[in-house]
């Protein structure tokens, strides 16, 4: 009875087309890349193909695309305020990308791209680089005022600046680790609970207990669905809040 | 999974590390896959951002804008139509009021005209009657006078005839008349 119980196995990258090695790096088109492009294709299908009729009274798919667009537009506007319209495409892309990749991970036997730290870190880096580059381009050195909150007494300033800088640098780390850890932990928990079912069934009389982990894995699946959507939303909201710093560094 | 699993005892099989080309490490921290993942991520996300910012979102924003302007236009049109209906109703009400006032005026003048006509007719009738009455009274007066004078003549004639029968001789006319006057006078003297 070779029941595969390794909860880590699901995160392995499987090369579909290998392009060989460059130094230590293995360059290959993996299932992860396939899911990324699948997500891009699906998002394009929803937002471009479904809206191409430009119906005044929208159908289901166009309605869905409009709801996503208005939702992200509102989130960005509420968090980043005036002048944030230029960042709606970025936040929309991030939200839809993360949402689709998270939800792909919930399909049995599919792969959760966002359970790899390098992917989430790169997405967080895009956000932080956008904040830094746009901040300096729009405000010049005034952008550095972000690290010196107004109304702080002089002797406290050096300490506050250090704290602000550390908090700013930790943003991409927390943003990426939050998403990565949520997806990783959720999928491991799901795999372990689901793995108990065949393990108990294989253990003779203990098979009576197997409905327990089955029920639990159903519950965890529901929870993970919620987490998948919620983490995409959290990612988009935090991105908007960070972008607000680039737009209004003086607060 | 390049290699098939070696048959393993059950207890070990449950926590079996699968043999793989990555060497069985923790895949998310397998740094040898990082460059490839970054490459595909950059391509996929770059494509997504391009599609969203250049095609999809302008299209959706255009749809929403069109819908909003169309709704606003429709609402304007509705408000315009309502104003028109209101003014039409005002015009109708004013016309109705005018017509009512005019009808009332016509009725009033007609009534007054009829009343004045009746009044003049009545007056002319009264005047007519008064003249007729006066004429009749005049006639009565002349007739009475005539009759009174005839009475004197008849009395004289009768007296003459009586005297002639009694005496056989006709009395003097003027003496008879004087006697009549004498006989008639005591009545008025009394």
UniProtKB/TrEMBL annotation, chain A:
Q: Does the keyword Transit peptide apply?
A: no
Q: Where in the cell is it found?
A: Cell membrane; Membrane
- Please give the start and end residues of each transmembrane region: 33-51, 87-111, 118-139, 159-181, 188-209, 215-243
Q: Does the keyword Membrane apply?
A: yes
Q: GO MF annotations for this entry? A: proton-transporting ATP synthase activity, rotational mechanism
Q: Which UniProt keywords apply?
A: ATP synthesis, Cell membrane, CF(0), Hydrogen ion transport, Ion transport, Membrane, Transmembrane, Transmembrane helix, Transport
Bilayer topology annotation: Multi-pass membrane protein
| One cellular component (GO) term of this entry | plasma membrane
Lineage top rank: taxon: Bacteria
**InterPro entries hit by this protein:** ATP_synth_F0_asu (IPR000568), ATP_synth_F0_asu_AS (IPR023011), ATP_synth_F0_asu_bact/mt (IPR045083), F0_ATP_A_sf (IPR035908)
In the record, the note on similarity to other proteins reads: Belongs to the ATPase A chain family.
What is this protein's function?
Answer: Key component of the proton channel; it plays a direct role in the translocation of protons across the membrane.
UniProt-recorded name of the protein: ATP synthase subunit a
TrEMBL record, chain B:
Q: What is the lineage of its organism?
A: Bacteria, Pseudomonadati, Pseudomonadota, Alphaproteobacteria, Hyphomicrobiales
Q: Which GO terms describe its cellular component?
A: plasma membrane; proton-transporting ATP synthase complex
Q: What does this protein do?
A: F(1)F(0) ATP synthase produces ATP from ADP in the presence of a proton or sodium gradient. F-type ATPases consist of two structural domains, F(1) containing the extramembraneous catalytic core and F(0) containing the membrane proton channel, linked together by a central stalk and a peripheral stalk. During catalysis, ATP synthesis in the catalytic domain of F(1) is coupled via a rotary mechanism of the central stalk subunits to proton translocation. Component of the F(0) channel, it forms part of the peripheral stalk, linking F(1) to F(0). The b'-subunit is a diverged and duplicated form of b found in plants and photosynthetic bacteria.
Compartment(s) where it occurs, according to its Swiss-Prot or TrEMBL record: Cell inner membrane; Cell membrane
Topology in the lipid bilayer? Single-pass membrane protein
Question: What name has this protein been given in UniProt?
Answer: ATP synthase subunit b
Give the transmembrane region(s). 34-52
Record flagged with keyword Membrane: yes
The gene behind this protein is: atpF
Keyword Coiled coil part of the UniProt annotation:
yes
């Amino acid at each position: 009875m070779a029941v595969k119980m390794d909860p880590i196995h699901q995160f392995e990258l499987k090369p579909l087309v290998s392009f060989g090695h460059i130094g230590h790096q293995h360059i290959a088109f993996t299932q992860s890349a396939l899911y990324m492009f699948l997500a891009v294709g699906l998002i394009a299908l929803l937002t471009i193909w479904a809206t191409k009729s430009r119906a005044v009274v929208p159908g289901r798919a166009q309605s869905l695309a409009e709801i996503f667009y208005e939702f992200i537009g509102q989130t960005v506007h509420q968090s980043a305020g005036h002048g944030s319209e230029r960042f709606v495409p970025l936040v929309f892309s991030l939200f839809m990308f993360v949402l689709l990749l998270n939800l792909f991970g919930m399909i049995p036997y599919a792969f959760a791209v966002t359970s790899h730290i390098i992917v989430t870190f790169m997405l967080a880096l895009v956000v932080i680089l956008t904040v830094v580059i746009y901040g300096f381009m729009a405000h010049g050195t005034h952008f550095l005022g972000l690290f010196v909150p107004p109304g702080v007494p002089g002797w406290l300033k050096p300490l506050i600046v250090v704290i602000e800088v550390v908090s700013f640098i930790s943003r991409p780390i927390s943003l990426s680790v939050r998403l990565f850890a949520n997806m990783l932990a959720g999928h491991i928990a799901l795999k372990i609970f689901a793995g108990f079912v065949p393990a108990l069934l294989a253990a003779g009389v203990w098979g009576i207990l197997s409905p327990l982990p089955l029920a639990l894995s159903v519950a965890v699946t529901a929870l993970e669905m919620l987490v998948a959507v919620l983490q995409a939303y959290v990612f988009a909201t935090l991105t908007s809040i960070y972008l607000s710093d680039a737009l209004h560094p003086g607060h | 999974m390049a290699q098939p699993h070696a048959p393993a005892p059950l207890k070990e099989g449950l926590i079996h590390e699968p043999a793989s080309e990555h060497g069985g490490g923790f895949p998310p921290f397998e740094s040898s896959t990082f460059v490839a993942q970054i490459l595909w991520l950059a391509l996929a996300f770059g494509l997504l951002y391009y599609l969203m910012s250049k095609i999809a979102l302008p299209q959706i924003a255009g749809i929403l804008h069109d819908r909003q302007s169309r709704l606003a236009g429709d609402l304007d049109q509705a408000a315009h139509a309502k104003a028109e209906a209101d003014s039409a109703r005002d015009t109708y009400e004013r016309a109705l009021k005018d017509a009512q006032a005019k009808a009332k005026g016509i009725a009033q003048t007609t009534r007054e005209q009829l009343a004045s006509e009746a009044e003049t007719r009545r007056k002319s009738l009264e005047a007519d009657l008064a003249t007729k009455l006066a004429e009749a009274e005049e006639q009565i007066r002349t007739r009475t006078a005539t009759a009174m004078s005839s009475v004197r003549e008849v009395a004289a004639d009768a007296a003459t005839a009586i005297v002639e029968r009694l005496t056989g001789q006709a009395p003097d006319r003027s003496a008879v008349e004087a006697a009549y006057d004498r006989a008639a006078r005591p009545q008025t003297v009394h």
